Amino acid sequence: MSSNSNPSTVQLFASFIRLGMTAFGGPSMVAYIRSFAVDKRHWLEAETFSDGVAFCQMIPGATAMQTAAYVGLKTRGVLGAAAAFIGFGLPAFFLMLAFSVLYANNHNLPVVVSAFSGLQAIIVAILAFATFSFGKNTLKGWKRYLIAGIAALLFGFNVNPILVILLAALMGLWLIQPGQLSANSTSAIGQEETHIKSVLLILCVTAIGALLLFLLKPALFDLFILMFRIDLSAFGGGFASVPLMYHEIVEVRNWLNGQTFMNGIILGQVTPGPIVITATFVGYLLDGVFGAIIATIGIFMPSFLLVVGISPYYNRFRSSPYFNKIINGVLCSFVGLLLAVTIRFGLDTPWDIRHVLLGIGAFIALYLKVDILWVVVAGTIISVLLFI
After folding, report:
1. Which three-class secondary structure state does DSSP give residue 80?
2. Which domain holds residue 257?
3. Which of 157, 173, 289, 297 sits a CA distance of 20 to 30 A from 82?
């Protein structure tokens, strides 16, 4: 259920562009979206937002992007979902496109990586604080800590995310007591019908676009379908799709060599947005700006369609106490995912005294409720001064 202070579509778009400029660390941004939409703007109630996070964790796709769409959907319907989803992803797209152009023209990647070296420590701090803040709101009692810990361990050992989420759901059903159910947990039939019509319209437009690509530029059609299929397989968030993307693009199709693809992954980690924004890099190297646009649409379209298409039916099940327990288990697994990603990023960061001080400073600033935008801006400037 949304609050009485619903934003306009323009407000949603502008707000999520701003959030998208600081969307480092993939799923960590869910905690910051919560802080913004629930605590600061009061667009959604905490329970409604938690329902959305659990829902987005259960379906394939980039979790943070889907959470943005969910907030828009709950406040302004399908149009609001599109505004929030597109706004949140645009900063990552344009920055990755700019990096792709620079890379294609002079391969000057080491300078970029050096300039943003300190940003790796900032990203770890953002992830760590997201784990702390989201965990504080989610983990009530030792049973939930147990589920989150087991999930983190399994995610850390690269166990199939579908199996991890399923195990967390079963443990939630077994261990967790259901919370008080919301009287508004079901959705109106009329709202469902409106969503169905909107989704069908989007599907028709997408199908027509794909058909035109197939007829006019088959290579780009293949790229679009591949990215679309990869996103449908991304259970557990964008990180789950990286190995599949590597396999399909490097090993199966030989579109890029392994080193070039990994350079795209590095750029995906030092730009805001989900790591699957690497699709923009791949598309640009294959067919310029148009290729980048097609690849980006392909990698994000399923995420959006699943949120707006399934959400109304998902809400019906929330009236069940058993389903309520399952959702709580899935939420615990999301905390485990955040912890596992934090550790993974931390192990990949070259820690020296400058990185340590940057990371600690960023975490303290976030704890003191400094806006994440200013933390990222200040951290980037300091990083450039320290590491070039």
Report:
1. helix
2. 9-179+188-387
3. 289
